[in-house]
Amino acid sequence: xxxxxxxxxxxxxxxxxxxxxxxxxxxxxxxxxxxxxxxxxxxxxxxxxxxxxxxxxxxxxxxxxxxxxxxxxxxxxxxxxxxxxxxxxxxxxxxxxxxxxxxxxxxxxxxxxxxxxxxxxxxxxxxxxxxxxxxxxxxxxxxxxxxxxxxxxxxxxxxxxxxxxxxxxxxxxxxxxxxxxxxxxxxxxxxxxxxxxxxxxxxxxxxxxxxxxxxxxxxxxxxxxxxxxxxxxxxxxxxxxxxxxxxxxxxxxxxxxxxxxxxxxxxxxxxxxxxxxxxxxxxxxxxxxxxxxxxxxxxxxxxxxxxxxxxxxxxxxxxxxxxxxxxxxxxx
Length: 332
What we know:
Helix content is 27%, strand content 30%. The longest helix has 40 residues. Strands 6, 7, 8, 9, 10, 11 and 12 form a seven-stranded antiparallel sheet that branches. A three-stranded antiparallel sheet has the order 3-4-5. A two-stranded antiparallel ribbon has the order 1-2.
């Protein structure tokens, strides 16, 4: 029997059939060895049942402990680091909340199925996060059906878990940057457009990103809204002249960003990490609410949208890619 007690596996082998054939005991009695052989030949058949019972008890305890250790190996109990530019640690608490095993039957192979209840949370609350901020979205769902024959090892991830990763990153301050442009080289994946010498851009997500069911043929959508942007743009430097050194010609802008990124989530088999595969032609929407010169409002909206369209998919990808996925090698 395999049960889950307080989130931990409990294995009890109620019956264990041990069969012996030609049980033999050899005692080294020195010069009296021939007498010992006679005694063991007489005694062993008399105590064979007791010996088998003792072996069964020992095997039962050992196998139960081994199986419990094996199942416990799936439990995630360590935090994980999200690399720069987010550069923060998320903590993971998990426990078994489902376990089901069945042997082979009617020509179908046997299988084992376990489920983890998982909670993710940051070590600290971000400086820009309100004290009354709410937790991550919760949505009821059912366990997916796995095939017994198509693969040897399968993993199903609830979208609620992905939303916990996004929420915990946001709540811990991981989506607030004093100058996001300092990270453009890391996030834009070698893009040709690098505006970091003429654009300073703060980025503060006032709400967490949210994973949603996909539309328009995409597996998932990730929505990001109420992102407050403050930008300082050197107009002369942007047009190819020498960047300003005294602040003259620098345009100050305040704007809100919103976007929905369509795509899919997969697992990279070489790194065992989540991958966010993003639609290339998604759009970021910018609403400029503060600007020094309203004549530049339309142009600056387009510029900010172009910059952020380079950064956002990779920013979200860094977040999801850091989550540790259990694999067969880690527990076997």
